[in-house]
Amino acid sequence: RRRSRQGRRPRVAASMNPRDPSPVPPGGGEMQPTDWQTQGQQWLSGVREAALSTLASGGKKDEDEVYSPFMGLQKSTLLQECRVFNDPQLNPRTCAQLITKILFLLGQGEMLTRSESTEIFFGATKLFQAKDDHLRRMITSSA
């Protein structure tokens, strides 16, 4: 026969008692912070520091600060990377990223010399023969 558990209080381990201000682990000794407690404390201190810095600056953020995935992009390294357009085994994703970087630089007002423009042009025209539809569409729409 099973007894009904109505009226009985559930058993709570000593360390789980919500009324005990200083929980002690079941074996005694001092309680060590777990990883999630340590991470929580680090997160909380980071939020606190961010809030204090925002208050110290008058609650205004620098509006000129804009995130760009192409921060620090250099024309010379981009031109070196564009040599992959001549590879027999094209990687469509890499080529699409390079075309995006080229368009970004041009949009920022970066000027290309005649030889740089020619090198990119002839490399990009080889992409018209690529088997990847997305890459071919990207070339025709950016041209």
Structure in a nutshell:
Helix content is 47%, strand content 0%.
Describe this structure in words.
Helix content is 47%, strand content 0%. The protein is mainly α and 143 residues long. The longest helix is centred in the N-terminal third of the chain and has 22 residues, at 35-56. It is elongated and about 55 Å long. The mean pLDDT is 76.
Anisotropy-based shape: elongated
DSSP helical segment count: 5
Distance between the termini: 83 Å
Derived structural class: mainly alpha
Unreliable stretches covering 5 or more consecutive residues? none
Q: Into which percent range does the helicity of residues fall?
A: 40-55%
Give a quick set of tags describing it.
mainly alpha; 143 residues
Fold topology:
Elements: H1 35-56, H2 75-81, H3 92-107, H4 114-125, H5 133-142
